[in-house]
Write a structure and sequence with these properties.
Length: 573
């Protein structure tokens, strides 16, 4: 049977890599090769650091950085998204693994693999249900508040590692903290501060220096992004040279090669216990991944297909589970490094994954003496820019409802936990939305002299008429806001007792639900009994179509439906 164009189209939709491979050029490969090498340099320290942040052996971060990005490269619609371990997901995994009911079952590695598998299954179920648009239901302020709160948790989690300390358990006991900090390890602190200094220098200072000497932008990117790898090399050599392994906490043994692909994730009770945690990890991982993908896609006029992203991320997480890796998502810092280094397609991530695979096979013994203080420094430098407390102030000034939701999300994450914080933020956003919907903007309008334009009497110098009340309702009329609209009209009538005609201007009304229609009918009867006539102007076709199916227009008489507000004013004034 011949291969049809429709078959080819369906195959390209499922495997977007086929689409860009058809037009792939040598120049694009050169750009991808360079970006892939730069991204691979970042994958090693980040993979190890995020695994340790999640409370897992380092190899789980490395394994999650090899096969999952390969599967995403085949199925994803973003050409530059870097999929692998992510900082926010790592702290959520840590929260799940340390939950009493999960910790009681033991074997955190098995729990992490189950989280990966469940995340992948949930994402694929969402794809089947066409839930790609779910990304639109978490507002930007809530996501920003969540990210800032989770980042502060990560900072608090990593600062002890920088000092060579264990996680504190002092609560609010100040004396306890004095004893706690006296136990810091000078060697770990020195290594941590050295790592921080190197990473900071490889940021803006080095970039500015290289720009001043006229170096090419691509070379500046390549050199500046080597900071994490150079930091790891320098601090690891320091541990070896000064024989600090007995004084400084190090990564420890990392197995060479890859684990056997495995589908056995029993016992089944763990699946039930971990399911709620997987749901939250999946939600945040998907929303952040698509948000990051859209940022880079918009720079180049490319298109992200949310539902296909569900499939790609779902398969990537299932692959992580099978290949012994932690849950994965799109990473902001890795993606921006990949993009800035000139990546044109997912070939860059295929190259990066290939380089990392070689490192895991041949150079795993080199990872053994990496000091955790240096990894903590890498995490801190990557996370601190994600703390955006000033955004709360800006959001508050623009919209208090969103500002409250953003601040409450941040505080909820810090005080109660990640899942509770994000739930609180979503709930407050919905409450704010419902409040806005139930209190629509209603303007009393008049005519701008010498024109046919009608504007708010509080904002413009306009003509008004003592017997006419012109009201523009700037929202659909529904069960949620009809009582507010009715009370507004009655309030205006008490303020202006001489009104004989009310004209409802429907320029912004696209729908009137059945509850609102019933209230409007009762309001019309009440107005007619008081000698006041209700009219409608500038109603849209779909609204009139619905009203014509009822008795409302007949009951409105002697009130009329006017095409233009100006026609109503000329006739009634």
């Amino acid at each position: 049977m011949p291969y049809s164009k429709s078959d080819n189209s369906r195959l390209t939709r499922l495997f977007p890599i086929i689409g860009w491979l058809k037009t792939y050029t040598r120049q694009e490969f050169n750009s991808d090769l360079f970006a892939g090498i730069i991204t691979a340099i970042l994958l090693v320290p980040q993979g190890i650091a995020y695994a340790i942040l999640a409370g897992l052996p380092p190899q789980l971060g490395l394994y999650a950085s090899i096969l999952p990005p390969v599967l995403y490269a085949l199925l994803g619609t973003s050409r530059t998204l870097s999929v692998g371990p992510a900082s926010i997901a790592a702290i959520m995994i840590a929260g799940a693994l340390t939950a009493p009911e999960v910790a009681a079952l033991g074997n955190p590695v098995q729990s992490a693999l189950i989280l990966s598998a469940e995340s992948g299954i949930i994402l694929l179920l969402m794809a089947v249900l066409r839930m790609g648009g779910l990304v639109n239901f978490i507002s930007h302020p809530v996501l920003t508040g969540f990210t800032s709160g989770a980042s502060l948790l990560i900072i608090g989690n990593q600062l002890p590692h920088l000092f060579g300390l264990k996680t504190p358990s002092c609560g609010v006991d100040a004396a306890c903290y004095g004893h706690y900090f006296s136990g810091f390890i000078p060697g770990a602190l020195l290594i941590g501060l050295t790592a921080l200094s190197l990473l900071i220098f490889f940021g803006k200072p080095l970039v500015a220096m290289l720009k001043n000497i006229g170096m090419q932008a691509s070379l500046i990117t390549a050199i500046s992004k080597c900071g994490p790898l150079l930091t790891i090399i320098v601090t690891t050599l320091a541990v070896d040279y000064f024989d600090l392994t007995g004084h400084v906490t190090v990564v420890g043994q990392v197995p060479s090669g890859f684990p056997a692909l495995n589908l056995d994730f029993s016992p089944i009770e763990k699946w039930y216990i971990l399911l709620p945690y997987s749901g939250f990890i999946t939600l945040i991982a998907y929303v952040e991944s698509v948000a990051i993908a859209k940022v880079t896609a918009n720079f180049r006029g490319e298109k992200i297909i949310p539902n296909q992203e569900l499939i790609a991320l779902g398969i990537a997480n299932l692959t992580a589970a099978i290949s012994g890796g932690m849950p994965v998502a799109g990473g902001f810092s890795r993606t921006m490094v990949n993009f800035s280094a000139g990546a044109r397609t997912q070939m860059a991530m295929l190259i990066a994954a290939g380089i990392l695979a070689l490192a895991v096979i041949f150079f795993s013994p080199w990872f053994e003496n990496i000091p955790k203080a240096a990894l903590a420094a890498i995490i801190l430098v990557a996370i601190i820019p994600l703390v955006k407390l000033s955004d709360i102030v800006h959001t508050w000034r623009y919209d208090r409802g969103d500002g409250i939701a953003e601040a409450a999300t941040l505080l909820g994450v810090l005080l109660y936990g990640i899942e509770e914080g994000i739930t609180l933020g979503i709930m407050l956003t919905l409450v704010s939305h419902l409040r806005k919907a139930s209190h629509p903007h209603i303007a009393v309008v008049g005519r701008i002299p010498g024109t046919g334009h009608y504007r708010n009497i509080k904002r413009h110098s306009v003509e008004t008429w003592p017997q006419l009340l012109l009201l523009r309702i700037d929202e659909n009329i529904t069960f949620a806001n009809i009582n507010y609209i009715e009370e507004f009209i009655k309030s205006e009538l008490r303020r202006q007792p001489g009104i004989r005609h009310i004209i409802l201007i429907f320029t912004s009304v696209s729908d009137i639900d059945s509850t609102a229609l019933e209230v409007l009918e009762n309001l019309n009867h009440s107005l007619q009994a008081s000698g006041i006539t209700l009219h409608i102007s500038e109603a849209k076709g779909p609204v009139l179509d619905k009203l014509e199916k009822t008795d409302f227009l007949r009951q409105l008489k002697p009130g009329k439906v006017f095409f233009h507000t100006e026609d109503a004013v000329r006739e009634l004034s």
